[in-house]
Amino acid sequence: MEEDTATSVKLNFTAPADVECNVCIGRKRKKAKQSCLECCASFCKTHIDLHNILHVGKRCKLVATGRLQETLCPNHNKVIEAFCQTDQKCICRLCIMDEHRTHDFISINYKVAEKKIKLVKMQKETTELIQTWEKEEQNLKQAIEAYKTSAKEAVERNSREFTQLIQSMERRQSAVKELIVAQEEATVKQVKERLERLKWEITDLKKKDAELQHLKRLFQADDNVHFLQNVSLVSHLTKSIQIPALLVQPHSLFQLATKAVSDLIKQLNIICQWRFMTISQRVKSTGIVSSSQPRTHQELLKYASKLTLDLNTVHKYISLSNKNTVLTAVNMSVDYPNHPNRFERRVQALCSEGLQGAPQYWEVECGVNGSWVCIAVSYKGICRKGKTAPLFGRCKSSWALRNFGGLYEYWHDNKSRLLQEKSSLGSRIGIYLDHGAGILAFYNVASNISLIIKVQTKFTEPVYAGFGLIGTGSQIKLCDLNAKK
User: Fold this and answer.
1) What are the tens digits of pLDDT across the range 256-269?
2) CB-count exposure of residue 6 (10 Å: 0-12, 13-18, 19+)
3) What span, in angstroms and rounded, lies between the C-alpha atoms of 357 and 285?
4) Is the pTM above the cut of 0.90?
């Protein structure tokens, strides 16, 4: 690139100082109005006419008065008329015939015109850049305000919900306390009633025991007459005495209830700890700006992730090979064990890894023998059984790129978009996912990398890589990217 400062004239945006007339004599010389490049002199309004009369027919060139000396060659004191391309320097005619005679030079006017074109272009680019940055600045300011508002609303809402949770737990604490106190009062009342009855029974029994002891003494004294007389008085002693049947449990206290509460607290602590980790991850993934999306294959490979197929999800008409990295549609059922996570209606499968947080990237190779392949990401809860089970992309919980007969289609929420025609069925597809930023992008990386489609969405839970096949021989291979890192 040419150095703009090589013109030997430094940029200065200050107004030039007043120049005095070179003809005026005396202490009060007049201010010059014009300068002659040939005469290398400046003239006031009075002496301009005189100059024009004396130089009629000559090559004099009058210009507005400025820094005349800066337009003259410092070596020859001649007007600068050319620009040396070799030395990147402004020169005069004598310079061309002297030290610059073998150099490449052009007219100063041509060079100025050339620089002017570049200046206009730079000015346009700068203006556009300023507008772009001002727009970005405005967007960031708006984003900050929206972010602060969202954070404030989140804090207030979480505060309300935690307060409600605390109040709910306090109500349940009060309810358990009331249950214990009520049970205590009812049980103690019941036992006290039994104690009163026992006390009365014991007193009555002691009275009867005393009468029996008296009869025993009469019998032992052989006082038969008195014995028989007294026996008739206590004939009621022959009645059977009913002793209340009581089962006392001295160790059956409130330990079971206390243990139940303790178990509940432990379970709540475990749930809270697990849920707080999820909350923490989601809070950390919330931001205003995110890292720029990769543009080259090498940048994408920095986010390469190793995915493994979840064997419990694979449809029975998918055959696995090459250490479970190649999925092929077959017309004979494969004997997989029954599992609630297995796809039964659609010939589909999911990977094991729940993807969220940091950006992820993986690649698949689409086989050339099949007629229909689908590359997707999906929530774990997608329906897998029955008539309502959807293909990937035909529901709100999945996003899919399909290759059907050489055509790319993007599907989500049962809506499709035709992307491009006659793609290669044997192409290698790269999938870039930035879960936190809500970015999902599909690339054709078979030869030169090219973006197929990029979508902006909002993920509310981890997603799983998924694959769909239709047509015997349709094939998808999970690629090992370790060798490319």
Assistant:
1) 888 888 888 888 88
2) middle
3) 6
4) no
